[in-house]
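I have been asked to look over a protein record a colleague put together. This is what I was given:
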Amino acid sequence: MRPLRIEGAWVHEPQVFADRRGSFLEWFDGDAFQESVGAELRLAQANCSVSRRGVVRGIHFADVPPGQAKYVTCVRGAVLDVVADIRTGSPTFGQWDAVGLDDDSHRCVFLSEGLGHAFMALTADSTVVYLCSEGYAPQREHGIHPLDASLGIDWPVDQPPLISDKDATAPTLVEAGRSGLLPDYAACRAHRLRSAARSSGNASTRA
């Protein structure tokens, strides 16, 4: 796994073994993940979405604590996966990074708690699966408008993005900040350190 430009996000590029039968890969390795990230991925929920070309889902995030870390991959088609830094006080606040996920490279993206997440489907029936550290809790879930000009995400499809009614009425980054919805960078880092400490303690207990 290698870190992305946004602190707290990584991309995993698995080795794909192909032969006349098909292919095989490890899209998640717990030991390698913990070595890179510094904590275990607590699995509380696994999601799967299927999107037509041009659909944008996000930008979504959850209150920290507990937040919702995500490990994302595309098992059919292709998407542009975007990590947005919406943590107030972060050195890269208001910036974003993007990774192409598809059923050829099988890249995966991990984003830690407090980061915003979105993706655009680049093909028909793009199928995305993601592992979540916490279950869905509507009262803790929030969004930023995916077309917010202040973020300036470069969505690549040459047609108006198709977004949900909920995402279409989401606030801009500035509006969310004024409303006190945005996660705090220091609080997010402290939460990650506590998670790392728990992971270390669990490893010592197992040993």
User: Anything to note?
Assistant: The longest strand covers residues 45-51. The chain is about 20% helix and 30% strand. The longest helix spans residues 185-206.
